[in-house]
Write a structure and sequence with these properties.
The protein has 168 residues and is an all-alpha fold. The protein is 52% helix and 0% strand.
Length: 168
Amino acid sequence: MGWPPCRVYAERVSTSESPSLHEWAGGDAAFRRLIDAFYDRVEHDDLLSPLFPGGVSEEHRSHVTTWWVEVFGGAARYTDELGGYGRMVAHHRRLGIAPEQRLRFATTMSLAADDAGLPDDPEFRAAFVGYVEWGTRLALANSQDDAQVVEQAPVPRWGWGVAPPWQP
């Protein structure tokens, strides 16, 4: 199985003309599918399920979806309604996430993106995995007992990075 021919960067749309990652993925509904697919996997995972004793509630799924929607360029409802960055950090403090759990989280999230039917173009997936890596490494660091946590910051707004979406 070969890769498609190399796309010429000159044919790419400029970042200012690019849709947000949220739009490209399919909007709020796509992120809800992603989060449901992810937590469905987590609930059956021997390494991750202990972080969620009793399973993952509907409220948790809804709040995490709201976070991801905002991060990927949708409405800022996590900031406006749910406490923003400070609240997300508070959820991870002193969880004691292990490096193996961080890696499993990242891998499981990538599989969940496939399950949810998120776009599989290299540009979107590079941005998606970039956020997953950044976020899981930050959560790992913030979850340790001796963490020097930045308590307040804006919710990150993730973008395309160096490879905007390719549109013929």
